[in-house]
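Whether sequence alone determines local backbone shape is best considered at the level of individual chains. We regard such an encoding as a compact summary of how the chain folds. The sequence in question and its structure tokens are set out directly beneath this paragraph.
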Amino acid sequence: MRALKIAILAPITAILASCGGIGRGTDSFLPTQTQREMPTSIFPSSPRPQSTKPPAPSDEPYTTVRLCPVSRELPLPELDFPYGLALIVLPGGDREQGLLRVGPDSIDGELIPNTIPSEDWVQRFEGESPDGKWFVLVRWALVSDKETAVLMTADGSQQSVIGEFGRGDSLAWISNNTLLVIGSERDSLLYSGTQNPFDFTLRPLPQPLQNREEVGLFMAGDEYYIVYYEVTTYGQAITSLDRFVVERLSSGEEWPVLSWLSGKSWDSSGGGLYHGWRLFVRSEGEATIVVEKPYGIDLATSINLLAPDDSSLSYGHAMRRLPLPGDGPNMRVTWESHTDERFWVDRYNSSRPSAYVYRLMMINPSERTVTDYCLDRGNAYPRTPASPDGRFLAWTQYEEEGGFLNPERVVVLDTQTGYTAHIDGVEFQGWGRVSEGPLPEGAK
């Protein structure tokens, strides 16, 4: 058996890719919004916090709230969308079509300028900034090994080339003015750095991230950290989870965390982690851990990853057992909030792949509530992004035809009321926010 080091998939995520180069944008472009001044050095040296115990799980029970309207489907204009919030969609999932913006001020869909591919190049949507004001399109020619990243506002009124990258390089928003860039393999390591898309400033990370399947990165103060775990494998199978480690990128200093979770077997017959687990890391290194169980989940919140925990703690001391409504034996986390402790889960039955029935729920540890929407999300991808304000969820429902999944419609859920709306014949790409000026008469 051998031990492997694997990075955790955190809310701020970049999927590592193959070789490529980093270039500089040539077009001059400054946003209308005031951006945070990037510090001269983003890697100051500061002492690591001392060890602290994670809070013990509270015995206060969770309350289940049902938001299950009998007639839940509404026209999109009646879904209480705030003015300026928009869905960015692709008609029919057709990559030869341009992107549409759909919202209260563009209910029938408005084409975002310069998003229709030509005969010479194709594109993909690479994600929106946390505040929804900007998104990145990555374009490449079919005969080229380079990709060009283009920054746009959600209405397309401001656009600029921000850089040239290698085919398959990964970009991910870390903040409203910072992208994480990973690519260009060098000496068995992957190049990694941050880029301000508004002034083209590229700053290499002080230590290249190791070549891992996934990288979890978070910020505390002006420092960058990664959190990874090590496992033992037998052949291709993972047999145990050995330890969790946090690394400070400015110095390479590492320290173990979550010792009470280490050593749990991934073999469900051994009574260990069963189906899987998720770790969410928000700013300043505060984490939530969810372990999926047939009865629901085990949960730990408000964990400080910057301070090693007490190795004498047990799984039972740190984790809370939380049964959830429904009969399916499988759970999966579909989305986690980046601003608070809320997250959403689906309950389903994996033994019936041709007839999945999902049951969507929201867990709010701060308010100690479980919101059951009595809602089957249908044939949809697990990840279900929330709007910048965290109120709405959106996902694409697909229909299977000839072994292929074709987008049927986009569904939007108001998590405060349980009401839904849908847009036929499009595929969801992301969220956008297009206006913060004076509102038209009657707008909210």
